[in-house]
Structure formats: structure tokens, C-alpha cells
Amino acid sequence: MLEERINELVPLQKKLVYTFNDPKLLNKALTHKSYSNEIDSAIKDNERFEFLGDSVLDLIVSDYMVREYDDLAEGSLSKIRAAVVNEGCLARLAQDIYLGQYLLLGKGEHLSGGRQKASILANAYEALVGALFFDSNLQTVSRVFLPKLVGKIDKYRSTWNFRDFKSDLQEFTQSKWTCIPSYQVVDEIGPDHDKRFNVKVVVRNKVEGTGKGRSKKEAEQDAAKMALDEFLLKGTSSSIDEKK
Predict the structure, then answer these.
(1) Residues forming the active site
(2) Which of 2, 20, 105, 221 has fewest C-beta within 10 Å?
(3) Number of domains in the chain
């Protein structure tokens, strides 16, 4: 690993308030598969760390909620976790630390704006969590990342009221375009006893959101929430949240 690249990653570690014992782990977490495929096959991409980080985030969020919210049942806890540990939320957390500028991307992804793509940022954030866990331990990961999530967790606990995002999205698309969204399973990851589903939601033949979950229903809710968030950001749905 070149000294120049090591120096490039110093500001990111300062933002995290954590210095990697092995900088190569951090570099791997920031390596998109397009870079490995197009530019340097010797550097492994971040997909394995992404897989690990996804589980670690679920664990630290679950641990916090079980300790803090002893009045909530398992179903409610699952809904809050799905709302917090999703692509939109993680992408915004990645933007907060300017993660995109540190990514290693292939030429095509770079030119197409990959550093700002929500899916790439969210996956890189999960990979960053996985790499830091690999470099340290669960307690350190919780110290670094949980404070960024606590505010969002508490917000959903107090104001969310466990919205049915699929119903909200269908109501919106029907009133706006006289159509209903459709959901498609992109892939299924993991053994039968611990499977994860990746789902996309399509509105007017365009993918408007993606979601992950331990069940198809959870992944669909996650995808619907992302689509609603995207419409809101574009200024398309100023009335969505006013209805709740």
C-alpha cells in the first residue's frame, strides 16, 4: 500500500476518531468492485466487509434498543431497526464523513457519479463498519458508530409510530400517477436459517428504491421507505409526511 494512499486516508480516520492498526483493511473497505475489475485486481473489493458490517450494524442497533426500550416487542424493534439500518440512512451517514471522496472506483463508476450514488455509499459504510470490527472489536465499533445512529433510533421510537411505508407509497403513486408500485426480489443471501433479502421497488418502469431485510416483507418496507425519501428529496411529495 503506497504511502500516498495512507496519507490520503488520515482525514477520514480523524473524522472517525479511530486510527486503523492495519491501513490495508481500511483501503479494502473503500475499494469498489469496479476498481478491482478494471484497474487493480490485486486489491480485493469491499463486498465481504460489507456483508460483515451489515451484521455488525444490526447487532449494535439491536443491543442498544433491547437495553433502552424494554417496553417494545420484537416486531416493533425489527421495524425500527429496518428503518435505521437501510440504504438511505447509511448513505446519509456516509455523506456526513465525505466517504465518497475516499472510494476507489473504476473509471465507469467514477464518470457516472458513483461517489454520490446512495447504493455505493451505503455499501461502503457497511464495509467500513466491517473493516473496523475486523481491526478491533465490537466494543470499539459501537463506540465509533453507535452515537451516529442513536439519534435516528430515538427519533423513530418517539415519532415514527411504525408507519406502513408500502401503503404510504401505494397511496402516493396512485394519487400522483394512477399506478401502483411493484416489488422484485433482486437476490437472497445466506443459509435458510439466516437469509437476507434484497428487494427493489419499481414505479413507472423505474427503480425508485432498494431495501434489505431478514424477510421479503421487511425488505419491501425498507425499499418503500427509500422511495418515499427519494420523492421527498426531489420535492415530489411534500404532503407525504403531513399525512402522518
Answers:
(1) 54, 126
(2) 2
(3) 2
